[in-house]
Amino acid sequence: MEMNSPVGPNALDAPGIVGKPIDRVDGRLKVTGGARYAYEMQQDNVLYGFVVEASIGKGTIRSIDTRAAEKAPGVVLVLTHRNTPTQGTGNHREAHPVLTGPQVTRYGQPVAFVVAESFEEARAAAYLVDVKYDWSSGKYALRANVNEARVPKPNDAPAADSAVGDFAAAFASAPVQIDVTYTTPLQSHAMMEPHATLAMWDGNKLILHTANQMLNQGQQVIATTLKIPVENIRLISPFIGGGFGGKLWVNADAILASIAARQLKRPVKIALTRQQIFHVTTHRSDTIQRVRLGTDREGRILAIGHDVFSGNLPSEQTYEDAALQTRTLYAGPNRLTRHRLVPLDIPVASSMRAPGEAVGLMALECAMDELAEKLNLDPIELRMRNEPSEDPEKHIPYSSRHLVACMQEGARRFGWDKRNPKPGQVHDGRWLVGMGMAAGTRGNPLRLSKANVRLDADGKATVRMAMTDIGTGTYTILAQITAEMLGLPMERVVVELGDTSFPEAAGSGGSFGAGSSGSALFEACDALREKLARIAGIDPATARFADGNIASGEKSMRLTDLVGTGLDADGEIQPGRNNKDFSQQSYGAHFAEVGIDQDTGEVRVRRMLGVFTAGRVLNAKTARSQAIGGMVFGVGAALHEGMTLDARFGYFVNRDLAEYLVPLHADIPAIDAIFLAELDNESNPLKSKGIGELGICGAGASIANAVYNACGVRIRDYPITLDKLLTGLPMRA
Amino acid sequence: MKAFTYQRANTTAHAAAATAKPGAKIIAGGTNLLDLMKLQVETPSQLIDINHLPLDKVEETSEGGLRIGALVRNSDLAADPRVRQRYGVLSRALLAGASAQLRNKATTGGNLLQRTRCYYFYDITKPCNKRSPGSGCAALEGFNRIHAILGTSEQCIATHPSDMAVAMRALDANVETVDRQGDTRAIPIAEFHRLPGNTPEIETSLKPGEIITAVTLPPPPPGVQVYRKVRDRASYAFALVSVAAIVDSARGRIRSARLAFGGLALKPWRSPQAEQQLVDAAPDTSTFNAAANALLEGARGFGDNDFKIPLVRRTLHSVLAETTGA
Fold first, then answer.
1. In sequence order, which residues have a C-beta less than 8 Å from that of residue B7 and are 6 or more positions away?
2. Which residue of A has its CA nearest to B320?
3. Three-class secondary structure assignment of A643-692
4. What stretches of A219-296 adopt beta strand conformation (E)?
């Protein structure tokens, strides 16, 4: 179905399995090692590949000597641009050609691929490949090259600019003004499982076990790159050890392994090393963000402006759309958002968890905090005064919006009334203690997805989709939907995902996974219910499904008596008018308390609470885990994470998990996330909205605002590390 | 990782003799060495596995101190009741380091010999005088937030990453060794690690074929023991600055003070001048300032690490206030 009209009452509305905090159905497999990831797939006769990365930022390969590597033990092939077939081209979402020529456009670009009988032999030989370069001068740092910014023109993203009213005039004449610039650093996804692929050819058919979030999209990219028909490519990815956007697109591992496997007529396996991931795959661009807020003396926004600079390779149009939420979060008659892209000679910048909002809210929501202080208003009160009645830019209704309820419930639970609005007043030994809050929002896209569900004579239902589960709980919610719709116990439902031989699905990304795949499955189950009702001679409208039976009035029949040798149905969901006629977002309010060691400037989070509304919650447990995971991401973004560019070489200096810091258990104390009841009749048949990225949206800003409240030092350059705070902290007497 | 041969040593003499050969390297916990081998920062042709040598005991010495075998794991040492009771600064330093998994594997001798975490040292495509003498120092004008402010040279501004060694420096530990002739010696920890000078590739005073067998601790000095580690996250992060302090004070007077610092130099740093400022002085701000001034004489930042100068000053104040109750 297309989402063209509101969803009426449906089978999910009665209390049932959907929504319950059910344990992950794949949990046991994961903790016992039974869930096998791409690199763990065993294959006879397999070879191992290792990437040789360019060690310059920009230039040309003058010479590449592979003789020593080729003679090294176990080596069967060394691919370079001299012996790699021509491939299709495009931006990083369209194609991923490798070893295309002597030009080096970015640090870490693969310049050779060594294939050997063992991983160790391949790696040892990779060090023997002798590459000589002619360097060219490159442009690496965002700030230093900001004058070269241009308007990005992506073909699959919202326009770079938006304007309503006369921002400049309204801001200039606003009685109260905030004009601040925030910067966020280069970030790496740092998921647990490295990018990995096992490639095999069967004649002209390619089979890839690969860690990829969107398999159908991946199929397309590989087809374009290798110039083979889509139907000759099968991607298999039943388990993925995290992605956060880093596995949305096809990376070098898949293409290199495919080319080598074809050439050698043997399966080829590769996993990037942790260090390689930082350069060989994508990252989130750093940003420079100027936020301007002009209000009347009561804090009502008259003018709201957000300008964002991010960087990418000259051949790419993808930009960090960090001003998107500013188009819709608060009311105000005069609005201006602009995104500019700076061409840089560093690896490809692309999506990382909540692209746009994750870092955009770290600027906007801190600017709002600064505004609240200037107005002498409580930060929640300021936000309530700017609560819009419709989308302020598109002038369309919200599908559902309960931000105010999130803020009020959060304030009550967190003890927000105990916050001292004057910074630097609360002491606990040598610790300064502060509280902060921030609003969060994330768009709710819907994408084409299909599903097939089959009920067999043994009473077992099997779901098949090319959907992925990147650790989020997709298997579980899809099993819940099926069990609910068909009136079966969970253990009679088998969900099979991660295979492009199954019906096409959206994949995992952009918070669209559960809503899109779940809705397609809902439709399939609905179609199967109808078939079963007709066979049973029951009016589908009155049929009830429970305990393996279909019933209506006095009549009840076993489903297993109706399916013969098995009965199946397909379902499909597509975005429609609802996705244009309604402004669709999930919302949240974040509350944080931090302590700052007044002597050393160390910031430690003390507690955090997120209160969210995201339509129907499909599984209270996995949803909470998702939200908490996002909030932890926010802690990292506020306090820890950042790749450092060394602009002499055009490379990221800190690229292992000892020096690229993400929060650890010890950094995450009392943390909780709750969802308020909400149903969204415009979003999809499940009445749900996306939650995969909501947790991060606003979390970092709440930490930053708590840091300010604790010590009175406002750091506008993330991450907020002790060296930045130190000079502003007075020594204890 | 380059191909290498593997040999298990059955006696310390055997281990010492084997280590004397060019390209030979001892492996104990391997928590640092294996990482470096994968990156070809270390390329030994032969690994001598000493894990089966009988060097895994913590014993009392006749002087009332402890003798810690070179193979005692960091977790075991931190949990040893004698260490916890008498050398709290060491137990806390150990537990402040690495992660539980690494501490279970890492050994006392290996901890002393771990290599710097300088980013450029870890990348064989970049200049580094320590890894590749004469190639230059990429950190001098590069990203040097974690680098040294004391005892640096134009050749190298790296730091030593150990926490354990900082506490041992405050405790005046001795490093016991044996060489291939079977001769033993005790190296004061002050002389064990070397400053970079013009030979940053030479990191310790160990001679070829000389291996660590134990670390001995003298009887614990009087006073309050504190280990304070300042870092970017709460766990599993190297020290930006750390202080191991043993301060004895009573009735408004400091009787003795030992201060060792991590994160400042290529060796655990001690400043007799700073300690001298404290002895027989009142534990107050001016005394602490005098100590900090003495410590930081000659300190130099290289840009990103300039903050370490005020940070160590503030951390020292904090630790002295804590240990003296000021």
1. B18, B46, B47, B48, B49
2. A599
3. ECEECCCCEECCCCCCCCCCCCHHHCCEEEEEECCCCCCCCCCCCECCCC
4. 233-236, 268-271, 287-295
Rounded to whole angstroms, the Cα distance separating B85 from B77 reads: 12
Q: How far is CA A287 from the centre of its chain?
A: 17
How far apart are alpha carbons B239 and B312 in whole angstroms?
11
Asked if B310 lies within 8 A of A639 by C-beta distance, the reply is: no
Look at residues B61, B54, B89, B70 and name the one whose alpha carbon lies nearest to residue B176. Answer: B70
Q: Which residues contact B28 (CB under 8 A, 6 or more apart)?
A: B50, B51, B70, B71, B107, B109, B110
The answer to whether residue A693 is catalytic is yes
The answer to whether A415 contacts chain B (CB < 8 Å) is no
In contact, A261 and A199? CB cutoff 8 Å: yes
Any bridge partners for residue A717, and if so which? A183
Cβ(A55)–Cβ(A64) under 8 Å?
no
Distance CA A699, CA B264 (A): 34
Chain B hits for A665, Cβ within 8 Å: 235
How far apart, in whole angstroms, are the C-alpha atoms of residue B175 and residue A15?
Answer: 69
Measured between CB atoms, does A372 come within 8 Å of chain B? no
Q: Which of B232, B236, B315 sits opposite A721 (nearest CB)?
A: B232
Cα within 13 Å of Cα(A429), Cβ side: 7
Contact B58, B83 (CB under 8 A): yes
- How many C-beta neighbours within 10 Å does residue A579 have? 20
Contacts of B3 in chain A (CB under 8 A): 73, 124
| A475: three-class secondary structure by DSSP | helix
Token pair 């930081």: residue: B296
SS3 at position B180: coil
Tokens 């090259």, located at residue: A145
Distance in angstroms (rounded) separating the CA atoms of residues A281 and B63: 58
Spatial contact of B189 and B269, defined as CB atoms under 8 Å apart: no
CA distances from A76 to A46, A47, A73, A197 (A): 12, 9, 9, 18
- Quick check: B233 and A599 CB within 8 A? no
Chain centroid to CA B270: how far?
Answer: 12
* Spatial separation of the C-alpha atoms in residues A593 and A418, rounded to whole Å: 11
Of A192, A198, A193, A191, nearest to A270 by C-alpha is A198
Query: Could you tell me which residues are beta bridge partners of residue A597?
Result: A431
B298 touching chain A per CB within 8 A: no
Report whether the peptide linkage leading into residue B220 is cis, meaning its omega lies within 30 degrees of zero. Answer: no
Q: What is the pLDDT along chain B (326 residues), one digit of tens a residue?
A: 789 999 999 999 999 999 999 999 999 999 999 999 999 999 999 999 999 999 999 999 999 999 999 999 999 999 999 999 999 999 999 999 999 999 999 999 999 999 999 999 999 999 999 999 999 999 999 999 999 999 999 999 999 999 999 999 999 999 999 999 999 999 999 999 999 999 999 999 999 999 999 999 999 999 999 999 999 999 999 999 999 999 999 999 999 999 999 999 999 999 999 999 999 999 999 999 999 999 999 999 999 999 999 999 999 999 999 999 98
How far are the Cα atoms of B226, B310, B320 from residue B279, in angstroms, in the given order? 17, 23, 12
* ipTM exceeds 0.95: yes
User: The whole model's pTM is what?
Assistant: 0.97
Query: Per residue, what are the HEC states of A506-563?
Result: CCCCCCCHHHHHHHHHHHHHHHHHHHHHHHHCCCCCCCEEECCEEEECCEEEEHHHCC
Which of B213, B166, B190, B177 minimizes the C-alpha distance to B28?
B213
DSSP A116: E
Using CA atoms, how far apart are residues B67 and B90, in angstroms rounded to an integer? Answer: 13
* Rounded alpha-carbon distances, angstroms, from residue A28 to A35, A461, B229, B321: 9, 20, 39, 51
- Which residue from A114, A131, A124 is spatially nearest to A256, judged by alpha carbons? A114
